[in-house]
Predict the structure.
Amino acid sequence: AQKVTQAQTEISVVEKEDVTLDCVYETRDTTYYLFWYKQPPSGELVFLIRRNSFDEQNEISGRYSWNFQKSTSSFNFTITASQVVDSAVYFCALSETITGNQFYFGTGTSLTVIP
Amino acid sequence: EPEVTQTPSHQVTQMGQEVILRCVPISNHLYFYWYRQILGQKVEFLVSFYNNEISEKSEIFDDQFSVERPDGSNFTLKIRSTKLEDSAMYFCASSDPSTGAAKNIQYFGAGTRLSVL
């Protein structure tokens, strides 16, 4: 069963536009963690944000913000005022307490920011 | 800033050969992981390692794979007899299981691209 779904495979935006990346997850665990990672063209995986299941407060960190809604099992990620350097593949990931520490990654969303 | 280091960045090998991928996790971390990413696909979990033993492994991690922490700093993934389908990017990660802001965050290395010919 697919635990993390990123329905958007590719997105293109013009620089300075806002863009939201969607993530829907599936779990039977009551305590879990959700993450967003960025994979630039150089290939490394860069940690961006973490959210735990018992805190639905949404936050903003610089140009990044996220919207976590347990009722819809969604964890969406927004970049405001996008920049060319934001061009990358973005992965949503889930970590469940009952299955240990392994991450379940989505298939990724490739974001291209056009100058 | 501490980081996970992986060597080599690119490994080319012949089918049937053994390869060892090396990783130096962040020094105060206690959990270590290997993931792989076949080109254009999602990142898949292989194995996690804690307290000198495997704590979890996926179906991908069969008898051809093994992991080892030979000393206090290195964490290795060995593939005994490589197959064409083992060609992928292999990521090492580490995490700190203690409480606090860093709990459960896995920090990834830059990856080793394995090409099996």
Notes: Residues 9 and 91 of chain B are 10 Å apart (CA to CA).
